[in-house]
Specification:
The chain is mainly α and 123 residues long. Helices cover 83% and strands 0% of the residues. It has helices at 9-30, 34-55, 60-86, 92-122. It comes from Christiangramia lutea.
């Protein structure tokens, strides 16, 4: 199997997560919750965009930088999801599902970040 055909679990998960965020933000817009919706849309979709950029990185430093940004965006996404839940803008059930996915992405990204930083310090 060629490299470009290999399944990238992180890219797939972050893309599917971004889709869920887009659908939630459309729903929030219908409820006239524009401000928090925009914040969530930016960071929630940025995770996957930065993972995509990391996959096209031209150096290890570039890869590490993009993964680091994706990790920080996942943390910000969790913040906005908590705020939406605590302000009664989304239901507990929806919050739990999305927060769990965001947390899973955070853990994967942090693990990659740690391993790339360890490899860097070994050189």
């Amino acid at each position: 199997m060629a490299d470009f055909e290999k399944k990238n679990v992180l890219a797939d998960k972050s893309y599917q997560f971004a889709l869920k965020i887009v659908f939630l933000c459309k729903k929030l817009d219908n409820q006239k919750e524009y401000i928090l919706s925009r914040q969530l849309l930016k960071c929630g979709t940025s995770i996957g965009a930065n993972v995509a950029e990391a996959n096209g990185a031209i150096s290890n430093a570039d890869f590490s930088s993009k993964i680091s940004i994706a990790y920080k965006e996942s943390l910000e996404t969790k913040y906005w999801l908590k705020l939406l839940k605590d302000s009664d803008s989304i239901e507990e059930n929806e919050f739990s599902k999305l927060f769990s996915l965001a947390d899973e992405l955070s853990k994967i990204l942090f693990s990659i970040l740690k391993s790339t930083r360890l490899k860097k310090s070994d050189n």
